[in-house]
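Give me structure tokens for this 360-residue protein.
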Amino acid sequence: MNHSSHPTGHMALLKKINQILLLLLVLTVCAILYNKVHQVPSALKNETVDLESPEEMEEEIPVVICAAAGRMGAAVAAISSIYSNTEANVLFYIVGLKTTIPHIRRWIENSKLKEIKFKVVEFNPMVLKGKIRQDASRPELLQPLNFVRFYLPLLIQKHEKVIYLDDDIIVQGDIQELYDTKLAPGHAAAFSDDCDLPSTHEMVRSVGMQNTYMGFLDYRKQAIRDLGISPSTCSFNPGVIVANMTEWKHQRITKQLEKWMQRNVEENLYSSTLGGGVATSPMLIVFHGKYSTINPMWHIRHLGWSPDAHYSEHFLQEAKLLHWNGRYKPWDYPSVHTDLWENWFIPDPSGKFKLIRPES
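Here you go.
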């Protein structure tokens, strides 16, 4: 009898061991599964955060364009040309005055531009109070939005690098290329030099245009002579800017520009001289010798300087960005190379903005 009960005890022990092993196995499998479910995704999640965020930040290209009353079609054509010629992730900052914002918003939302990423920013002209000297010869140059470029860091919060463009431009290249412009250490901005293109020199000579500091600042004034800038120094055009916001804030560029606006109100240092009004001159002073340069093909200018000034078609096709600076705008008449501009124009759904063309 004793003999027969022995195997039974043996079996019970084996069974118990098996149960424990099975339990351990189940626990191990559970632990593995738990880790798989809980840890791997969190590791993955960390990885995606690490991988994606900086890239997304880098890839968003902020482009600032003003939408002024009476010339909103210009902003629309500029935006349309940029958006159509790039795969980049562009975020448009469209800056307007309180009265014009609803119009530009409706225009975008009711046209093929409704696909774009954009923010509408209101510019308060009160910041200019007491800083602008009235200039009767070209009142359009005193429009508040001409000074938006002075206040970029106040309008654009989260970006390190920003592109500012005048509204009378068309972009034919990929805006990513312009955004990739290298700024030298310590430079808050890059501009186009007015002496950079042989083809523009011809144009400049033929229409008596200014491309030196002499054309913008009044060298009869002591304050200007005290700057020690030679009058024959080549000027630059601030209608296309690639700006570094960190440097801009660090160097207090906005404060410096305001200081020169204020001095001009008191001493008339530049507004009545020949050049492009009151927004260019303070920039020429503040950025003198402290700016990087933009590839010349990214700013072909003076298309609005004279209704008779023509560039060669081949040259204009090669150009990455066209700028109708001057009095003769492509939505107006007379003007030159209007076909290149009209390619990108989108009619105003409200019908308020109309192109001015000779009666056919």
